[in-house]
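BUG-262 | component: ligand-complex export | severity: low

The export step for fe (ii) ion jobs runs without errors, but we want the raw record kept on the ticket for reference. Input record follows.
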Amino acid sequence: MLVIAHLSDTHFGGKGDPVGRVRRVLGHLASLDPPVDVVLVTGDIADHGTPEEYAEAAAVLGEWPGPAPAYLCIGNHDVRPAYAAMRGLPPDRPTDEAHRAAGHLFLMLDSMVPAPPGERIDHGVLAPETLAWLDEQLAARQPGERAFVCLHHPPERIHLGLMDPIRLENAADLAEVLDRHDDVVAVLVGHAHSACALAFTSMRRPLPVLIPGGVVSTVTMDAEPFKAITTELPPTYAVHVVDDAPDGGPRIVTHWRSLPMP
Ligand SMILES: [Fe+2]
Ligand SMILES: [Fe+2]
């Protein structure tokens, strides 16, 4: 069995006490017994993408005591050169990363669209370079090795007026790559700031797309009597539990949690 703690949208440097909320979630996760196997943070690590924000992010995320590794990907609020510097990656190309933990492959994709300094582009695109890299990484696995594809932008509409126009633009290209590979368990994304799940229906055999909600703020449903983005709701995250289905394939179960702030 594999247990993944999935958080997203830490927005260091933004409103709503990111440091306190991230510490609250990581502190709770650190108390789990048995511990989780891996921690994922799917983008919008920083709010404006300044080096100071990444220094704070590295310090606070660095408080995670392990032993589970923590893997990150970039989001639309992140700025590629500063994010890449924090991750020790080249500044001028997509910040894709592949990691193996507990016998599983985690592919952390870069779906952000670089903008001129001081500007931000909010929708997502997977560059041809990233799609080719994903295809290669999935093809190079040992037979039966299970993989998770992680990125910031949801690939389909999720019925949030704020988020649907700024989802992943070239979802069909991602679906085309994933359709070529078995044993991808799920697509794990962020950006939505709303704990939800959907099927990636652009695929021939749709994978689940799982979204943990936001650590720092929540994007509300249009029908709810809240502001479109609120910090009045508590931090949320997801725990994905993966084991074997009766046919031998992977089965994933997700538990969402919200944690009251002290
Ligand atoms: Fe975000
Ligand atoms: Fe985002």
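Assignee comment: Attached the raw record above. The radius of gyration is 17 Å.
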